[in-house]
Amino acid sequence: MANNKRIYSGKAKDIYETDQAGVLLMVYKNQATAGNGAKKEEIAGKGVLNQAITNKIFTYLAQNGIPTHLIKDLGQGQELVKQLTMFPLEVVCRNYAAGSLVKRLGVEKGSPIKGGMVEYFYKRDDLNDPFVNEANIYFLEAANPEQLKVINDLTLAVNQLLIQLFHKAGLRLVDFKLEFGETADGEIVLADEFSPDNARLWDEKTLASFDKDIFRNDQGNIIPFYQEVLNRLVEVLG
Ligand code: ADP
Ligand code: TMP
Predict the structure, then answer these.
(1) How far is residue 230's CA from residue 45's CA, in Å, rounded to a whole number?
(2) Residue 101 alpha carbon, nearest atom of ligand 2
(3) CA 210 to chain centre
(4) pTM exceeds 0.85, yes or no
(5) pLDDT per residue over 148-167, tens digit each?
(6) Neighbouring C-alpha atoms within 13 Å toward the C-beta of 138
(7) What angle do CA 226, 229, 235 make, to 5 degrees?
(8) DSSP labels for 54-108?
């Protein structure tokens, strides 16, 4: 990594060039942020856990027909991924009402959402990632209708696969955020990460949070909970 040039430093990951064209090295950070960076903390062990969880999930999704950017798990919070042109969208899918949906629609936290609900947020930190509808997305040229249909269909397919997977792990998949990108030959691929930083996972029995809401709500150290998510995934997936 010492010889690799860092080309991006985000809130949760650093990205480096590699010797291979079209291949990026992603390094997960220990930094935790909430409220678009308003709350910020270093949490030892978070990067390694989030990369390990993402690796388990992306490998499982790839085995079940979802194209992903993952090329190689390097361990230690690092992985090689395909370099993509990213769609500037945070694609959120919800199975139960929580977070911003509860605030926006005034519904009760935990209300079930049959079939899953896909929402889009425009990835613009300076605007606090605003909610956007399809017309907004076409106006912004963030994706065209054909691309958005593929993104929507892939998101719902990921949702079905992960509802089942987390159910086997005794966890309720409440909601999550995905990001997608496009390869040079126009294939739309799942990118970024899937971790308890960008999903809500509730214990099926106690409904306790095993995700970043613990950090957002100042409810203690997230690490034992993220470790438990990984342990349960390892139990289910091997
Ligand atoms: P943020 O940019 O929101 O602070 P991160 O710290 O997680 O988030 O940074 C990772 C960045 O890398 C994100 O902006 C994401 O859109 C981008 N990204 C994820 N996967 C890929 C990929 N395969 N190719 C290029 N960019 C990617
Ligand atoms: P929300 O309730 O804040 O809209 O978030 C819904 C889910 O998506 C939650 O699991 C957090 C995740 N998410 C992100 O990780 N990043 C984002 O920018 C957004 C909008 C949501």
Answers:
(1) 13
(2) 2
(3) 15
(4) yes
(5) 999 999 999 999 999 999 99
(6) 7
(7) 145
(8) HHHHHHHHHHTT--BSEEEEEETTEEEEE--EE-SEEEEEEEE--HHHHHHH-PP
